[in-house]
Amino acid sequence: MISSSTPTPASPAVPAFEMRNVPVTALRDASIVVLEQVNWTVEVGDFWAVAGLLRSGKSDLMALAAGISRPARGVHHLFGQELIAGYEYERLALRLRIGLVFDGGQLLNHLTLEENIALPLLYHRGVTPEISARLAALMELTGLEPWASSLPSAVNRNWQQRIGLARALALKPEILLLDNPLTGLDPRDAGWWLEIVDSLAAGHPIMDGKPLTLVVTGDDLRPWRQRARQFAVLRNQQFIPLGQRDHLDGHSEPLLRELLSLEARSLPRPTQT
Questions:
Q1: Sheet containing 238-244: which strands, arranged edge to edge?
Q2: What is the pLDDT along the chain (273 residues), one digit of tens a residue?
Q3: Where are the domains of the chain?
Q4: Per CATH, the architecture of 25-97+174-273 is what?
Q5: What's the pTM value of the predicted model, to 2 decimals?
């Protein structure tokens, strides 16, 4: 007989998301497999950097992780629940716990920058007294308040991607996926992104101080080496986990050496490790 004083065993933590034997197909053509048999677990609070060369499947992997596309085979769990075929509304509550920033922002060109940010708030929350304050805070985050009423075509791609970040954060997700956030940026804009990502990992006021689970992709691991805590590369249609930061030195993966051996750039120092 178990004594009433016996402590109840703690339930194992549920991963933020988990893929088991999942092939990743191209977002624009589901008949094309870009990654074979992905096995990947992202724990709550993790910070992953996933790197690969051009057309290695980074964007397709992010779309699958966000639940935009579904695996043809295998199992994909999000917060312990399997994402299976079904009606969109059946997966909506899960998907709203993930924010995805597309490469380039992918804004709606007929809406102003502020209206692009407001879209998920209006669609999922409706008009509320709090929406104006939330929009103001998100515009302030981007540093683009003077252009709030401008159309996306009036600002450069770098700034469009900032608005994409604000839109992804509007509903306060628990997971943030950043697809190639540093591609094509000058040092000033790259520095802005690195500082924002550092603060989101630590707990930014825009998220009520709650640290986000983060996944970033890119074709260069150097900016993330002292920031991310888990690493992987995409090579020859394979998802290859590399382990934690201290596992990178001396790792035998040939693509890793290529992604870390480019001429060093001047990048801002991380605010956390």
A1: 81-82, 75-78, 17-26, 29-42, 238-244, 230-235, 47-52, 213-218, 175-178, 98-101
A2: 444 445 444 446 899 999 999 999 998 888 899 999 999 999 999 999 999 998 899 999 999 999 888 787 899 999 988 876 554 555 778 888 999 998 878 899 999 999 999 999 998 887 788 899 999 999 999 999 999 999 999 999 889 999 999 999 999 999 999 999 998 888 899 999 999 999 999 999 999 999 999 999 999 899 999 999 999 999 999 999 999 988 888 788 888 888 886 533 444 545 443
A3: 25-97+174-273, 106-172
A4: 3-Layer(aba) Sandwich (3.40)
A5: 0.87
Find the length of the chain. Answer: 273
Q: Which of 106, 119, 56, 51 is nearest to 257 (CA)?
A: 51
